[in-house]
Structures are given as C-alpha cells and as structure tokens.
Specification:
Length: 674
C-alpha cells in the first residue's frame, strides 16, 4: 500500500501554508506612521552659582488694601547690560523653609507686568516648571521694573486668612521674583512696606540703623535695612493697630527676646503678670537647656484673634504664631490649649534653623528639599517644646502627663503603622499641598511630630537609666544644638548641617549605646512595640479610665484647626469622633464603628431610637458592658439611612497615665524646671 499522509497532518500543513501567506501579506503592506516621540522639554533652569547678584534688588510692598486682601509689589531688579537681547529666568519661591515641601502657591501671583525704561518687556512662564518665568531682556537694559500682586485668601474655609481689617501677615516670598542661578544668600534686597494709617509692625527685620523698626514716615512707609534674600524671607512681618511689645529679658541682655502681641482689640493682649512671667521662664529654661543663643535677637510674633488664621512657623530670629482670641483669657488651669506652640517654634531656633539636616538645606527656594531627618527637625522639637512648656510653667506636670497619655493612646491606635513606618511619614510634606487623609489613622500623615515626641522621650529616659541619672538628652541639647555658631557677613547665624551619623556620634558622646540600631528599629519597624517604652521607663504606664481627664475635657483643636469645636471622643472605644450636630468627623480603621459600616462624613441621627446627643451615646456604650444592649444607631449617608448595630462591650475608655510603684519617676525629672 502506497504511503499516504494522515488527514490531520495534511490539515496542519495547510494551516501552516496559510499562516505563511498571511505573514507575507502583512509584511507586504506599506509601513504605518512611526510611533509618537515626546516633545523636548524646555531648557533646564540655570544651576545655582556662588557668585553674588551684581547689585541689590529694591522692593516696595503696599499692604493697605485690606478690603480686597491684596498686596501690591514693585520690584527694581538690576541686570548687567548686554549688546544683544538675552533671556533671564526669574523664580517664584516654591520650596519653603518650615513647610518642608513645594508649598509656594504661584497661583496667587497676579498682575505681573515687566518693563525696562518705560517699555514693556515680554515674559513667558516655563511650561514645565510653572514657578519659573522666562524674561526677554532687551539689549542695553540695566534694570527691570516688575509690578505684581499677591492675592491673599479671602475665605476661611479654603486657606489660612493672612489679611483682615485689623491684622495682616506679610511673608516676603509671596511678593517677589528672584533671578535663577543665584543663591538666596547672594542676592541683596532693600525693602519698604506701606501700612494702613496708625498701624505698627513686628518683625525680626531691623531698620537701616540696625535698630528695631521705627515709626513710619508721614505717608505710611516703613523702611528696613538692606539684607540678603535669605534673611528677608526668614523674617516675616505681622502688623496691626493693636500691638504690645513685652521684653522677655532683663534690660541690656545680649541677643534679647521680645514677645510681640497683636490682636483685634486691646483686651486680648491684656496678659496677667503671671502669664507673662511664664513666657519669660520659657526663655530662661531654653537658655539652661541649650546654653547659648544662636541669634542676634528674637521676636515672637503672636497674633491673638479668631479672624486671623492660626499658624506656627519657625524662623531663625522670629516665629509666626496665630492663636485664638482667648489665649490669655482662658482659664489656664483647665487645659494647655495652644501653649505648646511658642515653645515648639522657639526650639527651632536651635533645632532646624541653626542645626539643620543636610538634605533639608538648599541654596535657594526652587531646589527640592528632602526630609529624611524630619523626625529630628520636628520630632525632637516637639519633644523639647512639650518639655519646656512644663518647665516654664506654661503647663503643670499633671497637664503634661494628661497630654502625653492622650497622645500615646492616639498613636497606639495608628493601624496604618502595619504598612507605613514612621520614616516614610517624613515624606508627607514632599507630596505637597492639596491631599487629605479620609482615614487618618490608616493613611498616616505627619506622625513624625507626635510619634517623634515619644521616640525622643524613649531616648531621653534610656540615657537617664543607663547613666544612673547622671546624663540626659539635655546634655545633647547643650553639646550639639547649643554648640558655638558661625556667622555670615551681615552677622546672621550660618546654618550648621548634619546627617544621621553625625547625630548618632553626638548621642554616643553623651551615653554610649547602639543609637543607630535604636533609631532604625523604631523608624523602620511596623509593629510599634517600642512606642510606650519611654513612658514606662519614665515610671508610668498607659491605662484606661471611664472618665476623661480634665485636659481632654477642655482641649480644643487637637483634631482640627485651633478653635474648632471639640467633638465627642469615643476613639478608644467605638473608634469614632462625633461633632455636636452628629457629623462623624473621624472613624478609625478596623474599629468597631468601621466594622459596622460607618465612615467619615456620615451623620449620626439617633441612638437606640432617640435623637443623637453626646450623653445618650455615652450612656449606650456604658449600658452594653455585659453585651446585653448592643448599640443601635440611625445614620444618614447622603440620601440613605442606615441602621448599624455595634456590639462593643468594653465601655467608655479614656487614656490616663498611672504611676508604677517601685520605678523611679523619670517623667517628673524630665518636667522639672532647671
């Protein structure tokens, strides 16, 4: 029988032939258009050089338009004449010291007009870096004249209010453009400011004679001495019709400190002698902690107002602080409120402004900052601010412990630690403005502040334990952060940068230990097992009470902007916080409330068939301690009404610190005045 190909094989051969023909047909078709290629980027910005700008920039700012909340600026920028037209890039500050990220809001710059010799000069914003303006400078021009406006926020709901009918805040970076390719220290600026009639100014800037700013001329203009751009931007200004200056040092003290009180009316600045003495004690206690003053003079700028926006921002020779109008009129025995603010910002004169992490220092305001050591810059400052508040008598030891208990409980509830460690939170400012955390405890944000406080309490108590109370973190403050400082040509303090290894060496010089391992374990870990080590080594432990501490009962602003209503706090039982109108302000991830389907933004309407009231919800939580009366809720979510049930049997839980018998009270030693 002759050989024959099986039927299946013949089909396979035919298919292969057809596929080959198909490939041939495809290959025979004409080629399509080439794939797209990305357009080239604009030229890079000039690299920063050490050379100084040829001559000082002159700047005039008119701050009298209170009705429209607009600052008008006129700048005269000298340029080197050239024989042909050339391009000059001007920058609007983007990466702001103290903000640690890209928080310069160029969208608020308006009305930019540039001219030379009375003729318009063309400019074009960079299409990639929107904070850069490319200016076509005509041949032979030796000076550019710039007019621009800063449009300040007008709605409290959107951003901080910096201009009201009775107070204003001028942050110089908002009203200027400066030449690219230059260091901030290499640009000199001569500044004038026009204020409304009868207004006074408070700032670390000095007049042309080197003294504190004097009264304005007959037209309302205040003239300041020539400074570097670096010093100018680091010296903001508060102004208002009500200004009280209080010296916090004895007359003739070198590097004097002044408390500048500004308010909507005179009653708000009428501090008692005891209150002012506590602020004077803050300065004395900081002297005893650090040993030196790394500034020529220091001005606390303190705005006391319910209209002017709250703020806390450090500078080398001053700080911007905004608190409620009740700052001095509140009963100081009830709660700390905002009294840790000034100590925190003051500590930054040493930690952050003088001693600065090397990756946070930049030559100008358009170089990106990096934040790997924010747990030192902010976390250690948060710790010393908390400690100095108690040492100065701005809080009592009991208040300090109650605040520490609440803070420890809050951080212990950070479920997000499972996926995001403390080190990663230092990148939060790098993300920039505009992002929010719907699930704060799960997403985490700037935890390097308060968890940093616990971290440094841990280190402090360990030094005390290992040295048998012979040394403390205070010794690091004096040796490292209070070290002698170098000065710039104008007498201002030159920052001294450091890295992780340098700081570890400073700690080892005080108390030998594996400090690098100590911090990396806590910064990079995800279990939080060391979170309360400092509290417990301090002779105390976190326990739960059915009653809120007096601190917690009277504190406001800890879950939102200062001045916000304090919500009902059931964070450590049901896992939620509720405002008086029933709005769920916060729901903790994987808490009983979370598992019942609740989420932030919903509205609690009723508890066990009765309209929501804080006392009814508290009573329902207490009644279910034996599991006999699960909590029935009526919740509104938009147009939907839900009826979740929460079977939490742990009762009301509020954090307090309890003394551990037989252990030394190192917390008392930490808080004791020097």
């Amino acid at each position: 029988m002759p050989y024959s190909t099986p039927f299946s094989s013949r089909i396979a051969s035919t298919l292969a032939l057809l596929m080959g023909l198909a490939v041939f047909v495809v290959d025979a078709r004409p080629a399509g258009p080439p794939p797209p290629v990305a357009a080239p980027l604009p030229p890079a910005l000039p690299a920063v050089a050490n050379a100084a700008w040829p001559a000082p920039l002159s700047m005039e700012v008119d701050a009298t338009d209170l009705a429209h909340r607009v600052l008008q600026a006129r700048l005269l920028l000298p340029v080197t004449p050239s024989e042909a037209p050339r391009e000059l890039t001007l920058l609007y500050p983007r990466f702001l010291p103290g903000a640690h990220g890209p928080y310069g809001d160029v969208s608020r710059l308006a009305g930019l007009m540039i001219s030379a010799g009375g003729r318009p000069v063309a400019w074009q914003r960079d299409t990639v870096d929107t904070h850069a303006y490319r200016v076509q400078v005509p041949a032979g021009v030796n000076q550019l004249e710039l007019h621009l406006q800063y449009i300040a926020p007008a709605r409290r709901s959107s951003e901080r209010i910096s201009i009201t009918r009775s107070l204003l805040n001028v942050e110089w970076e908002t009203v200027l453009l400066y030449p690219a390719g230059t260091a901030a220290s290499g640009v000199r600026v001569q500044t004038r400011l026009k204020l409304p009639p009868g207004w006074q100014a408070a700032t670390a800037l000095r007049g042309p004679d080197g003294q504190a700013p004097a009264a304005a001329d007959g037209q309302g203009w205040w003239t300041f001495g020539e400074t570097s751009l670096e010093t100018l931007i680091d010296s903001p200004l508060f102004a208002g019709a009500v200004l009280r200056r209080v010296a916090l040092d004895a007359p003739g003290t070198a590097a004097p400190v002044t408390l500048n009180l500004l308010a909507d009316d005179a009653a708000a600045v009428a501090a008692t002698p005891a209150q002012l003495d506590a602020h004077r004690a803050l300065v004395r206690q900081a002297d005893r902690l650090f040993g030196t003053r790394p500034y020529r003079h220091y001005d606390f700028l303190l705005a006391i107002s319910d209209e002017f926006g709250g703020i806390g921002l450090e500078h080398h020779e001053s700080s911007e602080n905004g608190v409620e109008a009740s700052y001095f009129t509140d009963d100081w025995e009830r709660a700390i409120r905002a009294r840790e603010l000034l100590p925190h910002e003051y500590v930054h004169a040493w930690n952050g402004k003088f001693r600065r992490p090397s990756d946070l220092w930049t030559a100008n305001y358009n170089q990106p900052m990096r934040n790997s050591l924010l747990w030192v810059y902010e976390g250690l400052t948060q710790y010393w601010g908390h400690v100095l508040t108690a040492r100065a008598g701005l809080s009592t030891p009991e208040q300090a412990r109650d605040r520490l208990a609440w803070l420890a409980a809050e951080l212990q509830a950070r479920s997000g630690r499972a996926w995001r460690n403390l080190q990663d939170t230092t990148l939060d400012p790098t993300v920039g403005p505009g992002h929010t955390a719907e699930w704060e405890d799960w997403q985490r944000s700037t935890d390097y502040y308060d968890e940093g406080l616990l971290l440094w309490l841990d280190a402090d108590t360990l030094i005390r334990e290992k040295s048998h109370q012979q040394h403390a973190l205070d010794d690091v403050a004096r040796a490292f952060f209070g070290a002698p400082h170098a000065t710039n040509a104008d007498g201002s303090t030159r920052p001294a940068v450091y890295d992780f290894d340098t700081l570890m060496q400073a700690l080892n010089a005080v108390q030998p230990h594996d400090w690098a391992g100590f911090f990396r374990d806590r910064l990079d870990g995800h279990d939080g097992r060391h979170l309360l080590d400092g509290v417990e080594r301090g002779g105390w432990r976190l326990v739960w009470s059915a009653q809120e501490s007096r601190f917690a009962q009277n504190e406001r602003g800890w879950s939102g902007p200062e001045g916000d209503e304090r919500p009902q706090d059931l964070a450590f039982s049901l896992g939620l916080r509720v405002t008086s109108d029933g709005k769920l302000e916060q729901v903790f991830w994987d808490s009983p409330a979370f598992r019942a389907g609740l989420a932030p933004g919903m509205t609690l309407v009723a508890v066990n068939d009765r309209a929501y009231k804080p006392e009814r919800l508290s009573a329902a939580v207490t009644a279910n301690r034996q599991g006999q009366a699960p909590i029935r809720l009526l919740v509104r979510d938009g147009d939907l009404f839900l009826q979740p049930v929460i079977d939490w049997q742990g009762g009301l839980r509020y954090p307090v610190l309890e003394r551990q018998a037989g252990k030394p009270d190192r917390l008392d030693a930490v808080y004791k005045a020097r």
